[in-house]
Amino acid sequence: MSVQAYTVEQVAEILQIGRDKIYFLLRTGQLRSIKIGKLRRITDQQLAEFVASLEKENVAP
């Protein structure tokens, strides 16, 4: 099993949004993450779940 874990800065770059917006999404529970010691990481699965949730929100009825 191979899991990729990204920093907040890497996820901000991937999504092309600001670092502060990533922290907001984490704080509000819209984007999940893991903590390894003092480091916060976002796994590829957590990122995929977040993107999928956005796709569901944007589907027209």
From TrEMBL:
Which InterPro entries does this chain map to? DNA-bd_dom_put_sf, HTH_17, SinI_DNA-bd
Q: Which Pfam families match?
A: HTH_17
The protein's name in its UniProt record = Helix-turn-helix domain-containing protein
What region holds the Helix-turn-helix domain? Answer: 6-53
Molecular function via GO = DNA binding
